[in-house]
Specification:
The chain is of the alpha/beta class and about 300 residues long. The protein is about 35% helix and about 35% strand. Helix 3 links the parallel strand 3 and strand 4. Helix 2 crosses helix 3 and helix 4 crosses helix 5.
Length: about 300
């Protein structure tokens, strides 16, 4: 890894190391060349914690030596963890095993000038969402009233608060730890005056609103259809929705087109006419399957 990449990660504190040789080079050094093609190349870095995703075909034990070597390679890392499960449950967390360094799962990192305190074992965190956080913030206009349906520890809400100055943001999450960290992070970033936090089932809470919000964020692709149903009740006409969904497609361009059509068709079935205005392919999650965020304006309720 070159010094420029390390410096950028140190400054931003939360990134994905995608330089191809790193993880595979470490595997070759400590395990042998036969393991190189079996190791996934991605390391996620959150503050001073490094996270490795466990491939299904390898035992947990071999990652201990990889973790120790990673500490030597990246001197700003203090703790290395192995994610052994996908995100699961309503609280959206993974199961982790500590590999090396300090046995700490709580850290502080910076993203676009904002400070976030998190515990990787207690809340959902995905560094790959970083670009979408600022992308949405740049769309927000002054005096907007915003609903963040699956707010987590608060990155969408806090970055939008700092960069766009909306009049009010309501953030909801069912994970009590996410709510605790969101409260801390709102204070850390000095945006408490325009932010309200609710702990509970976002689908249930959102269903009680009628045409109250100028913009609704729905960053939970597993609940795409249910989130659309309640969000279309809560958004104002000529307001914006930002659903996330999984879509099967041949490539990223095709994924964005198909996702836009799927959102538009579902809205029509739910009695609303919407116009997609843009979107972002966040990541590939499997061969020919993508996680996509769509931006759309609600033209009218039918």
């Amino acid at each position: 890894m070159n010094l420029k990449a390390i410096f950028i990660m140190f400054i931003y504190g939360c990134s994905i190391l995608t330089e191809k040789p790193l993880l595979k080079r470490i595997a070759e050094k400590v395990l042998g060349s036969e393991y190189v093609d079996l190791i996934w190349r991605r390391i996620e870095v959150v503050g001073d914690i490094a996270i490795i995703r466990k491939p299904f075909n390898l035992s947990e034990d071999i990652f201990k030596v990889i973790g120790e070597e990673l500490l030597k390679t990246l001197p700003y890392i203090r703790s290395v963890w192995l994610a052994v499960t996908p995100v699961h449950g309503v609280e959206r967390v993974r199961n982790y095993i500590h590999l090396a360094g300090e046995k700490k799962s709580e850290t502080v990192y910076k993203e676009y000038g904002c400070i976030f305190k998190v515990d990787i074992t207690r809340v959902y965190i995905s560094p790959v969402l970083g670009y979408d956080h600022i992308r949405i913030a740049k769309m927000v206009r002054g005096d907007e009233k915003i609903l963040n349906m699956f707010a987590g520890f608060g990155p969408y809400s806090i970055i939008a608060s700092r960069y766009a100055k909306p009049s009010y943001i309501l953030s909801i999450d069912i994970n009590e730890y996410a709510v605790r960290y969101m409260k801390i992070n709102i204070e850390l970033n000095k945006v408490a005056t325009i932010n309200e936090i609710m702990h509970g089932d976002s689908l249930f809470i959102t269903s009680s609103f009628r045409k109250e919000f100028d913009r609704i964020l729905m960053p939970y692709p597993d609940l795409f259809e249910k989130a659309m149903e309640v969000a279309l009740l809560a958004v104002k006409e000529n307001g914006y929705i930002h659903p996330h969904l999984f879509i099967e497609a041949e490539n990223r361009r095709d994924a964005l087109i198909k996702a836009s059509e799927k959102v538009k068709d579902l809205a029509m079935k739910l009695g609303a006419l919407i116009e997609p205005t843009g979107g972002h392919v966040i990541r590939g999650v499997a061969p020919r399957k993508y996680h996509v965020a769509i931006d759309a304006i609600v033209k009218r309720k039918i």
